[in-house]
Amino acid sequence: MTSYKEFHRRSIEQPDAFWSEQAQLIDWHKPFDQVCDYSRPPFAKWFVGGQTNLCYNAVDRHAKTRPNDNALIFISTETDVEKVYSFAELQREVERMAAIYQSLGVKKGDRVLIYMPMIAEACFAILACARIGAIHSVVFGGFASGSLATRIDDAKPVLIVSSDAGMRGGKAVPYKHLLDDAINQAEHKPGKVLMVDRGLDKAFNKVEGRDVDYAALRSQFMDAQVPVTWVESSDPSYILYTSGTTGKPKGVQRDTGGYAVALASSIKHIYCGKPGETFFSTSDIGWVVGHSYIIYGPLIGGMATIMYEGTPIRPDAGIWWQIVEKYKVNVMFSAPTAARVLKKHDPAFLHKYDLSSLKHLFLAGEPLDQPTHEWIMGELKLPVIDNYWQTETGWPMLSTVRGVEDTKIKYGTPSFPVYGYDVRIFREDGSECDANEKGILGVVPPLPPGCLTTVWGDDERFVNTYFSLFKEPLVYSSYDWAIKDDEGYHFILGRTDDVINVAGHRLGTREIEEAVQGHPAVAEVAVVGVNDALKGQLPVAFAVVKDASKIATPELVAALEKEVMKRVDETLGAIARPGRVYFISGLPKTRSGKLLRRSIQALAEGRDPGDLTTIEDPTALEQIKAALSA
Ligand code: ATP
Ligand code: MG
User: Fold this and answer.
1) Beta strand 81-86 with 238-241: parallel, antiparallel or unpaired?
2) pLDDT tens, position by position, 414-473
3) Residue 399 Cβ < 6 Å to ligand 1
4) 372 CB under 6 A from ligand 1?
5) pTM for this structure?
6) Where are the domains of the chain?
7) What ipTM was assigned to the predicted interfaces of this complex?
8) CA-CA distance, 193 to 162, in Å (whole number)?
9) Are 9 and 422 in contact (CB under 8 A)?
């Protein structure tokens, strides 16, 4: 068996040989003539001349050989619906949806915006675009009309697919009025709006001539056969906007062939999934994880995929594990924020069910702090793997690659560069850092298959945003701060905008958060740098405690604050000690579960919190304001 190091080296030194082997994992209608065309850096084209189709690879090819195997398992604990679709059934539903699209005039290259809750029809809607070569742009259901309007104007869809409402925590969350508002605000007007009526909002408004009903159209196309449209490998498959944690979201454009190959190979090598097995990703189709590891990745790999509408704690904190037991889930994918939520509940929920089918749990999206990593791995007694990546890359950049070698898992690190990524850590002048020296994580281009090929409609923004950090060399910048240890393990220290400069010492927010998190009373924490006349900046911490009785009196609060500070002193040194530790009951996060540090920092410095369109719970900011003024 080759070592992972060897495997990675080959992917960088002999990319053509390496990737043409990986390309055998998918079906091609017409074989490619060239593995990579990198004649116009930093733009890379993968599998030039090849023709394929994402929907064919995700559905049809399995429906041919294993028609009755599970493909899509839809579970809603919100509406108490559970429905399993075989590959053959999934193909039929996708063909019906594709026929509806065609009847509404959607053609290859047209954009279809999908603004939907986590229901099976959203999966059909996505795959139907791929089937006919239309470009989908999924917008997280629950974004308000302002966010939706900017995305409508950027993607200019001919059709929008939506639904009357989502459900969360037992309550219907109406979508349609938000969509109508967004269309009113937007300059671009879609020709048609296809409505999947769940019967959750009886009073939703229907616009004559524009809005059409999915169920009525579907009944006309029950026997529809819509052959796949073969597309060029480099034809765009979708547009997806980044989470908007740091400001205006960027419209990531993805190709077709490179993406299919990257996903197929990641299912095999990183996720160790096999045809016939089951993949459960707890993300949402509105995020990149949902695109790659709810819809396309597992299905391309011939696995069944679970689409779950609900929260991790309803009806109780055992629901995910109940699903794992019932459907014999083999691979699970979630976010550190979910692990921290579970940590606040009784660990007995993790032990109530038979989890023997589960091989790995992957966590991505935010730093997985060492204490949480150790805790969840100990409770579940299986490898928990930290995955580092971005909307831009579409699949992991840093991970252990256990399909190739069982390397040691270290807590708090996403480990090694994934094959295909020539990851290096750079100083601000563009030179490379030594081991254990902090710097900016970058990738020497060409970016591997699967990564963004450009910013939608804006090649210049692609180059300026991602490749212009240094004059020399040409490097893709992640805008994350990182360090590599002597054994080659990478640690993400925070975003480059979040570095705290205390009297000339540059500290990553993540480092301090990690230290605070190490206190047994703390469930979650955000650390931001606040202007300080003396030291330049001073770290300030906002911590959520596991048990509110620990902060029941001012004396207890003061004592806990001291203990937390002491903990930071002991782990990082007094230089990193937060000037204040505030205790609150929830942190402001984006809808995808990422900390909104820039808003917290703005409040702590007495500024306006800025653009809040992506915030999950605005009351969390009120708490911070209250804590600061107390
Ligand atoms: P925007 O780019 O619009 O500001 P965003 O960066 O939050 O939003 P995403 O692409 O969803 O949008 O998130 C990628 C970022 O999430 C990474 O750049 C990194 O900062 C963080 N991240 C993801 N996974 C990890 C991980 N395993 N460890 C540490 N940080 C992570
Ligand atoms: Mg980003």
Assistant:
1) unpaired
2) 999 999 999 999 999 999 999 999 999 999 999 999 999 999 999 999 999 999 999 889
3) no
4) no
5) 0.94
6) 4-310+387-480, 503-629
7) 0.99
8) 7
9) no
